[in-house]
Amino acid sequence: xxxxxxxxxxxxxxxxxxxxxxxxxxxxxxxxxxxxxxxxxxxxxxxxxxxxxxxxxxxxxxxxxxxxxxxxxxxxxxxxxxxxxxxxxxxxxxxxxxxxxxxxxxxxxxxxxxxxxxxxxxxxxxxxxxxxxxx
Amino acid sequence: xxxxxxxxxxxxxxxxxxxxxxxxxxxxxxxxxxxxxxxxxxxxxxxxxxxxxxxxxxxxxxxxxxxxxxxxxxxxxxxxxxxxxxxxxxxxxxxxxxxxxxxxxxxxxxxxxxxxxxxxxxxxxxxxxxxxxxxxxxxxxxxxxxxxxxxxxxxxxxxxxxxxxxxxxxxxxxxxxxxxxxxxxxxxxxxxxxxxxxxxxxxxxxxxxxxxxxxxxxxxxxxxxxxxxxxxxxxxxxxxxxxxxxxxxxxxxxxxxxxxxxxxxxxxxxxxxxxxxxxxxxxxxxxxxxxxxxxxxxxxxxxxxxxxxxxxxxxxxxxxxxxxxxxxxxxxxxxxxxxxxxxxxxxxxxxxxxxxxxxxxxxxxxxxxxxxxxxxxxxxxx
Lengths: 135, 382
Description:
The structure holds two protein chains of two kinds. Chain A is an alpha+beta fold. Chain A is 28% helix and 38% strand. Chain A has one domain (2-134): Sandwich (Jelly Rolls). Chain B has helices spanning 7-32, 36-41, 52-68, 77-87, 90-94, 108-119, 134-138, 157-176, 182-218, 230-246, 255-260, 284-297, 308-315, 332-351, 370-373, and strands at 44-49, 72-75, 96-101, 123-128, 141-144, 222-227, 249-254, 271-277, 300-305, 319-322.
């Protein structure tokens, strides 16, 4: 079982693909058949699987998330910023962890699927963890 | 060198650690005092205060402008209250945040300006240490300054607490308005705390230097203090401290204005010139140009700061109190104000002056600060 930590600097709100990093982490773990958990230890970011083919599609995802939870000034949470308050809600909706199946030493993903860190409060210094287990 | 009690010096040297101790409390208070809707309705910030509070506002003005992303103006309370609050349009006032500063909370004109602005529709944030004071009573909201008891003397601690509070408010407003990111805001707060902590040791190191220089400035009948940008606020503050501590004739002048006005003084041999200049000042090149004039006129020149101007002054045989080498220009008052105040503290000790003339004789009206606290409130239609 291995746990690896990975850093990411987000420039702005949006989706940042981390599929290659996860593949490398799975490969380095030596796990051939098992599970891989990806986790972001943040409250204004999330993890999702979406199509990587058209970057505009990722913008659509974030545009609609923003329509669902617009940044506004009447959030009760005012210790930080309106963007931060909206980010908390978005993070809860999207989730902060993903479980992937590992087979033949690689994460099982469809041919259009990529793994993305969704930044809801950029620019920020981010990190995520990858944990691989046999099974 | 000062060999006897010097309460003003003691207050100056005690302030940095007091600020560092109180910093987290101040940061939290500055973070929460304005709601997000209040910050978003603000289109203009007016800073007002008298004396040290006015200089604190001037010292923090440009950092507030930069971080908040909002227009900022600093006005003395008589002008702010009786003129600007009355002549501004109601829509403008409705989008104005007035930050009214009074450490005691009892300054009559500051309370008056706060009242007049509030009546006009502005949001008034009182910044004071007096929770039950006059200013707190008329302000929409209050940011309490946790100024601890400090040695009784012309003020340095309350001034620097006020500067720090405004800097924290600027960071907060900028963060909420997203003119700076949360990460940038946090980095600025950490840097601000580090800067304040660093001044503690720096001020101790500057103390003997100031003690050595102080007799030379009060040896001249007139002391002029010069600066530009945030350093001009330091110059104004320095002149005020010499007035309070010694009663010596002193005034402050913008660096460029000096060439238009004070350059022509017919008695340069009677004047000591104290120039506040930070190494990264946008006015540094101008200060370098003026060195030759100061020298040729025979001014007793003292540089409070560092950089090329200080090096030239040193080469020409003038006095330098090296400060602010590691502080960004917009925060230079955090580093340069202490040596300015130390100059006044040691000048008072050197001349045996009683602070504020002891509020006796012709100055007896100033006992208990009545000259600034006991004054009739002006009413627009009275």
